[in-house]
Amino acid sequence: MYDLHLASEQLEIRETVRDFVAREVKPFAIKSERLEALDRALPLPLLDKASQLGLRTLALSEAGGGAGADTLTGCLVAEELAAGDPDLAAVLTETSCLGQVLFDRVMTSAQRDRFLPLFGEDDRFHLALADREPDHDPSLGADYHRPVAREPAIRTRAVRTGSGEWILNGAKDCVANAPLAKLFVVTVTTEPQADGDGIASILVPRDAPGLTVTPHEEKDRWFHGACGALTFQDCRVPAQYFLDGNVAREHARLSEPIAAAINLGIGRAAYEAALDYSGLRIQGGRRIIEHQAIGTKLAEIAIRLTVARNAVWQAAWAADHPEACDGGSLPDLPLAAIARVFTAEAVHRAAKDAAECFGAMGVMRDMPLQKYVRDALISLHQGGGPTEAKLEIAEALAGFRRAPAVSARAAE
Amino acid sequence: MDFALNEKQREWQAKARRFAREEIRPLSLPRDDIADPRETFDRDIIVKGSKLGFRTMAVPKEWGGHGTDFVTQAVVMAELAKADSAISKTFSQCWKWSHLIAAVCTDEQKERFLKPFLADDLYLLGKGISEPSAGSDNRLPPEDDPKAGLKLRGERHGDEWILNGEKCFIANGSVGKLFFLDVRTNPNAPLRQGTTMFMVPRDTPGFRIGKVFNKSGWRFYQNAELIFENARVPHANIVGEVGGAVKKSGGQGGDTTGGDLFGDLELAANALGVCDDACEQALNHARTARQGGRPLFDQQVIQLKLNRMHMLTEALRSFVMRIAWEHDQKIHSANPGLAMNFSTDVIQEVTELYMDVVTGPGCRRNHHADKLTRDAMIWSHLAGDSVQRMKVARRLAKAVA
N or C: which end of chain B has fewer CB within 10 A? Predict the structure, then answer.
């Protein structure tokens, strides 16, 4: 059996999101101030509307008040949103993904009772994972295929007081959703010595005393969505905010196909723009799509995007059906990393080709093509870039198993 | 075969290198970051460069210029572009059209235009070809659509011509003092026969500047709309003859006067400077930055990227210097066009590799790498789109016909 039919609910939600994007997001996204790279504030009213459509709580279980969408559905939605505005897509999918991990998987029922109502009823309640530390490079890079344990280098420390409270000290960087999150999941070490042991996650509400959030400067952005740095200075949270389970790893597993789908949406926006324009612009006595040079370029863009979409859907489906790999239906490969790197390279090339169809208008800041090229370039460098992803894939191909880092042992 | 630069060429190179490093480079990123495209230009750097000869170096000695050869021009363009591609182009845009004045203008015209150009450090030149509905059609006029191409209309009234219409994306548009303008003087004739080139000073009545285009790259460089509403230009400002514009500025076969042929060399040499910058910065970063406790350079993937960047850049250098030398020997072929097309592929790949080498896992942009990739995107439509490539193929076919 090989079945590529989407379920009727999947087709329906894709149509809903496509319609929302066409009516509300696209008119906003192609305004010239939005196309400026230097100042691109988040569209809060659109985030509210998307939340009302259920996109903020998409992956959260139905029991928790969400739509209980699987990864494939998440990818369909992410592509549609990103075809309109990748920042919007990045913020919503981050919250949706973390919502599922936190509320459906790792929180205790007491924690759920405390936070789920707040999360459910507030359209502006976003979530953020604070994992990465300033100046820490998580890349595989030089450790490729070397039998060395890789330390997560978490220096943000949580100390338990006599009264049972946790006191946090340290700093985090590149925290997606930081500027608007109302609840953070913070990776900390609970051991006095920074030997990588005792890694845990703690919930920190935005208004916790001692927490400072500094959004990154817009003009230096190299990410989709919103991003910022956190500092904890004797930041106090109650004892019951301590979490069991490795949130960062579960989040990475769920969000990787989604990130590729966001990238795909950027490529599709570029493709649709080029296809439209090529059917309108007349040079050489005919519409430019009727010229071989442009026709083959559009075909190449379509080929790249179609193959990339197949890879993304396969990776998403594999995430939803882990048993398919054991049964031999799918190869035992890091399909999400494969999809992400193929998509990133394909979309970057496709966006450049699409821009070329526009001639000089392809580089003008009041036109969207230059933004698509830039957005594709940003996606290309996410998570360490294509080379880093290839190193990870190569280790997996060889079945290379490194001694697990002590932190991973502690979490298992 | 001799690849050595002579003493005079080395002097220009050293002078350009110093000016680029000390004066242009500190301006490059701050100017790139300015949001308003009308504010990115800097008059002081033009005046400083002009006083060193970088504005007028292509004007022949007998007219008071420096009379540099093409090899020198290529070397200087690359040196300046290594510090800022757009500032280099602002200077070389003046050489492009001083070649044209020197080659085809009458002595009376040279007296009127070349002398003020030489005397005024802020006298910049531009050329107006593109129009909103005529881009590729000007480069490769379709045989089956004789009315295609530029539409800016010129009608003769006695000793004057009345111009109506508009040009877009025009280089040095908002800062230039003299424009070479392609005008349709016979709307019923195909582009090549119906177009006349005029010299139009900035203060011509009926001529005004519209918007300055807000480009993602080359932000210093001022591309603007030129708008003509019953603008009056004397008949004496025609370059060459009525209906001879395309021949003068470089028709399909290429010309000998500066238009296309210099323009091809110009973009290739400018790209070379950008690639030199990217290679130097990438190598420097790889040697100083550390990853996993070791120099980044130790990694094979980094060495392979650095190899490819340098390999492409050196191949481009060889090609650029060869076509500059061929220009000086008055050897004309399709090579300049091929070099220009090649420079598109090279500048984009090299700047992307540079960004790849310097971008770690962080979430902040590397401004310099970001700027170079945006500057490199300009080549897509100026130097390496399919029309530019087909045009060169036709030059090749014509050469064997």
Answer: N
B365–chain A Cβ distance below 8 A for any pair: yes
Determine phi and psi for A376, rounding to 5 degrees: -65, -40
Range 244-283 of B in CB contact (< 8 A) with A: none
Q: Tell me which residue range forms the domain holding B314.
A: 260-400
Please give the structure tokens belonging to residue A159: 């100390």
Across B113-121, average pLDDT: 93
Complex ipTM: 0.94
Rounded to whole angstroms, the Cα distance separating A167 from A238 reads 9
- Is CATH 3.90.1150.10 the classification given to domain A141-243? no
With an 8 Å Cβ cutoff, is B22 touching chain A? no
User: What part of A 344-373 touches B (C-beta under 8 Å)?
Assistant: 352, 355-356, 358-360, 362-366, 370, 373
Closest chain B C-alpha to A365 CA, distance in angstroms: 5
Q: B255 lies in a domain?
A: no
Short-list B75, B169, B59, B68, CA closest to B123: B59
**A43 contacts A91 by C-beta, under 8 angstroms:** no
pLDDT band at B225; cut points 50, 70, 90? very high
Contacts of B298 in chain A (CB under 8 A): 142
CA distance A156 to A192: 11
Residue B1 lies in a domain: no
Contacts of B62 (CB under 8 A, 6+ apart): none
Contacts with B292 from chain A: Cβ below 8 Å: 137, 139, 141-143
- CATH 1.20.140.10 for domain A247-411, yes or no, is yes
